[in-house]
Structure formats: structure tokens, C-alpha cells
Amino acid sequence: RLRRFLVKYKTTSKLIFYSTQVNVVLVLVILLVILSTYIHFNQKRPQSALFLLLITGFLLRLFMAAVDPFLQDWDERFHALVAKNLIHHPLTPMLRLDPIMAFKIEDWCCNHIWVHKQPLFLWQMALSMKLFGVNEVAMRLPSVIMGTISIYFVYDLANRWIKNIDISFVAALLFAVSNYQLELTSGRFPLEQNDVAFAFYVTASIWAFVRYLQSGRTFKWAIFIGIFVGCAVLNKWLTGILIYGGWGLYELLSNKGKIHFKPWKLFVVSVFTSLLVFVPWQLYIMHYFPAESSVMYKHNSKHIFEALDGNGGTIWFHFAEMSNLYGKHLLLFILLGAYAILSDKQVDKKLSGSLIAMVLVIYSFFSFVVKTKMPAFTFPVNSIIWILIASGIITSFVRVSNEQKPYILILWIVLASIITLKPWEISDKRSHDNQPRNAKIHNTQIFKKLDVAGKLKNRVILNCKSFEDVELMFYKDVNAYHWFPDESTLDSLMKKGHTFAAFQSHHNQQLPDYIQHNPAIKIINEALE
Asked: What's the whole-model pTM score?
């Protein structure tokens, strides 16, 4: 009893200490936000403020990548395992390396060849783990880097579009502390690293388009647009071509609806470049994995006509989710900012119309056409929305006197940043009394310490907690299942030379007698929670 008490006391103490660390980091982040805002608006040193903001954004994302020392349930653990397997098999995406039991290729959670998602974000994760080891932080590191670069993209995009340094800074600041983007980096929200990468490349294509226009429509920037679009498609799918709709609208507005061949030549060059990036992989998987790729393409199209995996909702779903993505107290500034930009005579109205139209198209398409609803479906246009919000905030302070303006504005922006960061949510999800999280930490520690080179060597491990077999296979080079086969199947597999081990029990899932009393099966006594 004393030993159990001491172990429990030690574990609880660690969790309380860890929870305190989370709060300390969040306070430090808020202080850095205040400092960078003060440097920008009071000291009038925009470049120094931007540099400090980039450092803050990087450290905050690195913290979020490390704050949860386990793989998140949906869908990070599956992406992590496929990425790990890509380290040694870069052209053969696999979830299970050795599926000794029957499976359906339609079941992306449990199959062998895994083409459920496009591969670029997985390759990035695999490269990071090859360099820094197979662990959670290395797996999330590409999202940390892409998120930090995106802060600059948002800043530069706003500055080139609206030509207002204050709006640029506020937009970049709000993006830097965006709770939704940060939690995607931590893996806590569905589609996590996949959506971070997708939004990054879509944002990069929008940024490159503005650079293209302001460079005098040069060949170089048309190529960059095509590369970024190709990478976006190679991360998720055809929503990545969004910028071509905005580009086409810009050309039509520039020529008053008339079609002239000359402005479209570089458009065609850019589209062809994007095809060179993402089409080869499609041809490759159709040739080498025809059945799996056929299932994947059909599954993608089903999102439009069916509410897959229980992800349904009304046509207002994505509009309601804006409060989670951007903070409900900031939503009014979107309309105010759009009005201010469209009515500003110094801002290119054709560009404004094109960029805002992309937001409207994304929200209309996923609200009124697509049946499957998920919050991150509209996330690729978040850079434009943050710029609209920042424009609305700055515009609302135009009438404030010059003497009071810097201090009131600094206070307002800090409050907006805190609303966007939602530190109370980050802290609450990592509190020491969060039992589901503590269970994940407990089970992960068991997986990491499991001696698969000793008594468990070459054994297939059965009876993991639901889908945590995927996590075990990430941390250890073993074959594992979160269930167990019937007796006849088990006998057949053992006759083929497979050896087994099994976790004793968890959540009232007891092992059957034919496993419990089989001397050839090693019973693992560590209790999963």
C-alpha cells in the first residue's frame, strides 16, 4: 500500500508541476506579445517587432509540439505511423508493415498500403524523424517551421495588399497566437499536421500571386505559384488550386470581362508547373497500388455527396465554427475590415475583390455543396481572414486622438491576442486532473519502456487499448493489434510460425481463456488505462 501510495504521489506531483509549467509558458508568451506590440506601436520599430514576433511564434509552436508527450487520437497517430514507415520505404506508404490478419483496404485505420492522404506532409514528417529521431516533437517539427514561416507570409501579404504596416503587424500577431493553428500543431484537432501543411502551401500560393502581380507579372513568380499549388494538392487535394480561381477573376476584372490571350500565357505556365508537381504521384499510385488508389479517389469524391465518418452538419456549420477558428469576439471585425479595404481608394480593388472572393467561394462550397463538414475545411483561407480582422481593428481606431491612440490600441490588440490564443483552453486541456490525458501519458510510457528486444522479441502483441496498437507500432518496431483473433485463427497463425504476447486487460476487456492459459503466449502484466 505504501509503495502504491508513493508511486501515485510521485505521478501526481509530476502532473501538477507539468501543469504549472504550461501556465508559466503561456504567461511568458503573453508578455512577449505585449513587448512586440509596444515596440511596434510606441517605439515605431516595425522590423524589430516583426523579428520578436517570429521568435515568439516559433517558440510557442515548439512548445505546443512538445506539450503533449503522446500521439493524439484523431488522426495524428495514423499519420505518425505512416510517416515513420516512409523513412525506410519513401515510395510505399504503409500503415501496417506486416498485416498478418485479414483487413479491408477501405479501412484506412487498419489497412496495409495507405494512400488515404496525399503524401507531401508525410514525407516532411518522415524526413524530420530521420534527422531527429522517431518521437512526437520531431514528427510535429515541420508544422512548427511552416507555422512560423506563415507568420511572415501573412505579414508580407497584408503589407503588399493593403500597404499598411499596422494592419500587417496585427494580422501577423493574431495568426502567430491563433489557438486553432497552435492546436493543429499539437495534434489535438482532427487532421492536424495535414491541415497545417495544406494551409501553409495555399497561403504561400496566395502570397506568391501578390508578388507576381507586383513584380510586373514575371515568369519566376508564375512558376513559384505553380510549385506552391502543386504542393498544396500533394498535401490534401484539389482545393489547393484555389488561387487559380482568384487569379482568373483578377484577369477578368482587369480586362473588364474580356478575354485576351497575352495575360493568360503565364497562367497556363503556372498551371502546367503545378501539374508537374502533383500528377506524377497520382500516376505512380494508380500503377503500383490500383485498388487502394481507386478507393482513395472514390472516398474523396464521397465527401461532396455524403456526410462521412459522422461529420455532418447544417449549411451554417462552417460559419458557426468561425468563432472557434478566430474567436467570436473578433468576427464583427471581418465585415468591418472588408468594408474598409474595399472602400480604400489606395488599395487595388481588383486584388481585394479576388482575395475576398476566394474566402466566399471556400465558405460557399463547403457550406452549401459539400455534405461532409469539418472545421478545418475552410482553414486554407485563414490568412486572408486574419488580415480582414486586423484591418477592422485598425480601422476602428482611426478616430481616436493621436495622444491616446498608441496606448488604447496596444491594450486592444493585446486583448484581441489573448482572445485568439485562448490560454485558458490550452491550460485546461493540460491540467493535472485531466484523466483521459493522464491515461494517454501512462500508456505511452508503457509503450516506450516495453522490452521488445528481450522476452517480447518478434512477438505480435495483442489486446492494446482501442487503436493504441498504432501508437505502440510508432514507438517500437513491433506488430500489434488492439484486439485478438478467435481461437481457430490464432491456432492457424501460430502454426505458420507467428508468436504472440498480449496485454492482460484494460477497460474490462479481459483476455479469453484460450489466450490466458496458452503457455506459448507471453502475458504482459503492465496495466493499460
From this structure: 0.94
